[in-house]
Amino acid sequence: MLKLIYEDSFEGFLSAIYNAFYSKEEVTSIEINDDFDVDMLTIIEYVETDIEKYKKVKDSIVLKIDPLALNKIYKLYLSNYKNKGLLCYKYLKLAFKLGTNIHKHLYINEVRELDLIERRVSLEAHRFIGFVRFSLINNKILYSQIEPDNNILELISPHFKSRFINEYWIIHDVKRNIASIYNKISWEVIEMNNDLYNYFKNYNDEFENLWRNYFKSTSIKERNNLKLQKRSMPKRYWNNLTELKNH
Q: Order of strands across the sheet with 2-6?
């Protein structure tokens, strides 16, 4: 039995998938860490990110299946699904045989599971396009904190680049300590600097107070519908909604 450990990037993810296909051992796990117990029969292999392997797997998915399958696998990688590496491997073993028809076989567990994960990640990204609340720091930088279930920064950043094309902005995923940073030209997802985070966290933004006062003054107490609010924006996201902080 073989356990593959890959570097946490999409290139590393597909490099591990490549090794899985060419392994002579039975692959039982494809993970980004090795912080849990394995038995004496399990072989651990650390996979180095290999751009050539990454390209071969990516191109094979597009050519032998279709771009939709690649999109689903990319969102699987961005998801918080625990066994995504093994799911991807099992899915591709089927998909390379069935080709583009794989999407029709929703009665197969791996196909159905990947489809559901892709939908969940896409829905969360769509929600956060409306949920992101910026604070204006030093009258120069727009800063926002989010805590999504999945790693969606790469999915939502193009929207905010288009919407705030002439602004400097930072969208900080505090759960993963990464941030998308835009410099009026392009955006990039990087690991967040702790000193910078502490500065933003302790900054008192007058804009937040104005926004809360506006929300309070325009809401009608008699028409409050908490069930509808929770359905439209789950309560686990409320911590970073300016108008609902401390609600």
A: 27-31, 2-6, 43-47
Check: pTM over 0.85? Answer yes or no.
Answer: no
Does residue 173 share a domain with residue 60?
Answer: no
Domain termination residue (choose one: 124, 156, 182): 124
pLDDT tens digits, 204-236: 555 555 545 544 555 555 555 556 555 555 666
Chain center to CA of 241: 19
Same domain? 162 vs 203? yes
Let me know whether 97 and 170 are in one domain. no
Angle 151-157-161 from CA coordinates, rounded to 5°: 175
**Coil vs helix vs strand at 160:** helix
What would the pLDDT profile of 37-46 be if each residue is shown by its tens digit?
666 778 899 9
Range of the domain at 166: 132-244
Alpha-carbon distance of 223 to 2, in angstroms, equals 58
